[in-house]
Amino acid sequence: MYMKKFINDPKQLVPELLEGFTLAFPRHVKLSGANTIVRATPKSPGKVRVVTLGGSGHEPGLSGFVGRGMLDVSVAGEIFAAPGAVKCIDALRQACSGGQGALLVVLNHAGDVLAANIAMQAAERENLNVKMVLTEEDISSSVGDRRGLVGCLAVYKVAGAAAEDGQPLEKCVEVAQRMADNMRTLAVAVRTATHPATGQPIFELGDDEMEIGMGQHGEAGTGRMGLKSADETAEIMIGQLLADLKVNAGEELLVVLNGAGATTLMELYLVFRRVTQVLQSRRIKIARSAIGEFITTQEQAGFQMMIARMDKTLVDLWDAPADTPFFKML
Amino acid sequence: MSDVIRISDLRRMFAQAAQQIRREQDMLSRLDCVGGDGDHGSTMVRAMEVLEIEMNRESDQPLHDRLKDAGWSVLAVDGGASSALVGTFIAGMGGEDLGQESDCKHLAASFSAGLRAVEKQTKARPGDKTMMDALAPAVQAIQSAAESGEPVRLVFESAAEAARRGAEGTRDMVAKYGRAKFLGERTRGVPDAGATSIALVFQGFREAFSERKEA
């Protein structure tokens, strides 16, 4: 397969994309050091900073959520690869200069966790007030082994809102952890993406196949099957998610559908329609929902479905104002 | 045995290791297409070239401080798990006092310290189809050859051989760690890219001492 992408030097992909991104949203974000995105106007001192890290090539994630009410700092790595630990340490130092400490939100992927752990050990040596919350909500593998997918969006949102509200670090950690513990995600892929730096497809999938349980970078799941309709796919996925989270009638959920890059909003609305019907039939309420592209994988076709059990505090934090390039709450 | 290890030896070791990785960059990336996203070769080239440059820097620091600084420079590379583990290993080697000049036994202790540092950061162990399958046996080979008083040339010969066998052994394994673990059985039949890299690095180390006469 021949790669058709508008790129320049593959080695300069990440700096060039981050430069373009910050030029596009000068009111919200700016670059601070190599490949680190911060708010254009820092949060007032005396408030907790929320920091994240992760590979690039998933735009608008993760840097697209830097802004008022969500992230303060996003440390970007290479295409699909974690950033170096040194940059993460620098970001934590900078975040802690605000005086109230920092919350580091990390998606469970081997490289990201390594970088984060090395940075956290350095933070401890320097007596920085940093706490880490790991997101690991992908139900396609067993507990303890689960990847972090689009659920990070909800964690950024509630932790960011608590921090903006001036809550202490312990409180921000508590709501972030509660959100993380109560969310589940499942992904499906129908067509692969090309790695923009190598030009190679990141996985193989037959023309008439789909795979449920696909990771963020095309890591295979376990459910390879023939292509299904929107309704059938929605039913399989929501069924597995509800069972894993053990959702009971009467409970309230946040539902997020995250397009992988090439799947249309049209398709996502068809899926959401069926999800809503299934939930209604089980007397489960949709408290809030978000449908769109939050964390993509190039031109991969497919989507992630995320559900989270919500309580009043989490709903209030979700509803709190946010103004970032790719997530706004008015 | 009075095999003296100097900065000139470290320079040759890392120059040869980088050369090995550069030569096999495309092969490493192809292996990574099976379990990862096909960028392992370019990531390892970046990491090894950082080490090469750091070793060539003019400085009167003791050897262990040079290793520590070089490791942290690799930890600054945006290379996901691979560069984080290589950086951790080299920085960890710097935890053992080597002075301005050292000998085989101290160098062996420094390799062991590097391995311990890596073991603290990852739960992966030999058998999981990762870098550890080459790294752990190579370090053990260095340790036992140095303890029995082998000359440095033979120490690194056995290390390179142990790493090569370890990497080759990953061919029949199923990945249990990192991104590749989600592919399960599909990873069987192809050696692990990370373990193959480590075997090449130790092959470079072996070549750095291949001309060394017995002391």
Properties at a glance:
heterodimer; A: 330 residues; alpha/beta; Rossmann fold; Hypothetical Protein Tm841, Chain: A,domain 3; 6-stranded mixed β-sheet; 8 helices; 14 strands; 32% helix; B: 215 residues; mainly alpha; Serine Threonine Protein Phosphatase 5, Tetratricopeptide repeat; two-stranded antiparallel sheet; 9 helices; 2 strands
CATH superfamily of the largest domain in chain A, by name, is Dihydroxyacetone kinase, domain 1
* Largest protein-protein interface: A-B, 38 and 32 residues
Which oligomeric state applies?
heterodimer
Uncertain spans of chain A: none
The number of E-state strands of chain A comes to 14
Approximate strand percentage of chain B = under 5%
Any idea what the shape of chain B is? Answer: globular
Note poorly predicted spans of chain B.
none
Strand content of chain A: 15-25%
**Which value, in Å, is the CA radius of gyration of chain B?**
16 Å
Q: How many helical elements of chain B? A: 9
CATH superfamily of chain B: DhaL domain
Q: Describe the sheet with the most strands of chain B.
A: 2 strands, antiparallel
Count of individual helical segments of chain A = 8
User: How many strands, what sense, and barrel or not for the largest sheet of chain A?
Assistant: 6 strands, mixed
Number of domains of chain B: 1
CATH architecture of chain B: Alpha Horseshoe
The whole-number mean of residue pLDDT values of chain A reads 95
The tally of strands of chain B reads 2
Provide the residue-averaged pLDDT of chain B.
93
Major beta sheet, strand line-up of chain A: 1-2-4-3-5-6
